[in-house]
Amino acid sequence: MKIKRRQNKELQRYRDTRARGYRNAETREYGDVKTDPVSLRPRVSVSQKPRISTGMARLIDNILTATQGRLLQELKTGEPDGFSIDSRTLKPGQIFIALIGERFNGHDFILEALQKGAKGVILSDETSFHRLQGEALNLDFFVIQVEDTLRALQNLAHFYRMQYRHIPLIGVTGSNGKTTVKEMIASILSQRYVTLKSQGNWNNLIGLPLSLLSLTDAHGAGVLEMGMSKAGEIKRLAEIAEPDVGIITNISGAHLEFFDSIETIMKAKVELIQSLPLNGVAVLNADDTFFPSMVQEVRCKLITFGINWEANVSATDISLSENKTYTFNLRINGGKCSITLPVMGYHNIYNALAAAAATHALGLNLSEIQRGLENFQSAPMRMETISHKGILILNDAYNANPSSMKMALKTLKEISGVGRKIAVLGDMLELGKWSEMAHKGVGEAIADLGIDLLWALGSYSQFIALGAREKGMEPNRIFLADSHEQIIEKLQHELKEGDTVLIKGSRGMKMEKIVKGLITTH
Q1: Tally of CB atoms within 10 A around 366
Q2: What average pLDDT does this structure show over 275-283?
Q3: Is 183 within 8 Å of 223 (Cβ atoms)?
């Protein structure tokens, strides 16, 4: 494959091997030659899971130190273990943190948490404590009062992180692919280490701290997903976690409702790179449109990944295998191995490259990276493939934005067999003033890709249909629906053996209901 060259003068200067502090001519990695590599602790095997016993008094002292809280009531017996913010899922022995949200107040559920076995409570409303003195007389628990329970959760998580500062952490952000890259990294790291990873979609100012509170000395490394809905949130997440390696998967128009432009989204994502320590590692997508801008913010070592532009970690000899997944040669600084991805979609090659680059930064070798990528298991509802009565369903219902929607449609075209290509799409949310244009663009892509049938659901479905019609898709192949149930009922009679169906939409659209309906009734 012929490598294209960028013409940007600043980028050429950045890649000039003679410029001190820009590229290491020996390793062909970017960053200051004198920058030390990320320090790794000795290997901890998966079978070794030592526990740290801090003792009740020390644990409470740590909480008081981290949160600047005030002890209102002491625990008489027992030893707390773990933290919870949800009384419904709280386990006996955990400490309940009474968060206050827009639609809930955790102080209303303190008694329920104590009745379920909570051994401690962190609260901000002292009147709640006074009520407990009468309602929970027979229960043994400690109470710490703080000024702000959310801030206390975050500060406590940062305190935990500092106790385990020797454990390298990778932070992952970007407009698309964050969860998949996080899972791929965890799969690779687990070849060598007990690995901490964000659970589910715990990628915000509540979820990330809860993930960090699970960190113990048993872990050898960790990976945390970092999401955002406004500027400053990535910076705060990085302050809490202090990652050693930071990845920006890509930049596109997600959450445009909260930003003026894609450029402002890029600036918010770059907060992760700006927060990295001088001996850390930034991992950037060399093929991304905003790469020349992002690279100017790097002040530590840089490792790039890509397919079309020159990069440290790249994919060559890409081919579509018989099972409709991609095989390619993974190249890292002169080394090479063959990778066959277990998940569909060309975009997942980029996700794999990002994961390979980040784990390579922590010293994992090619064989470990290969095993981790080939054994990777995709998170639910993210290009999940379901074969049902001769029909292939692509369940990509977890979320959607203009870029990920178009990538999913391309995957639908790539992997479809002898039957029809059917797109069942829900609204893309949080796009603000860009909503109509973005949905129309998705419709145009549907027509350009030759999708056979379109079902659209939601307030903006008419704009998807408009874009498809204006690009030449016949109106009798476009259907607008009022409900999930209507689509399920129609598709039950429409689907034929050999058809491939893509189901995708933003989280609020709950498009997985259609997947479940087709599987259980068709």
Answers
A1: 16
A2: 97
A3: no
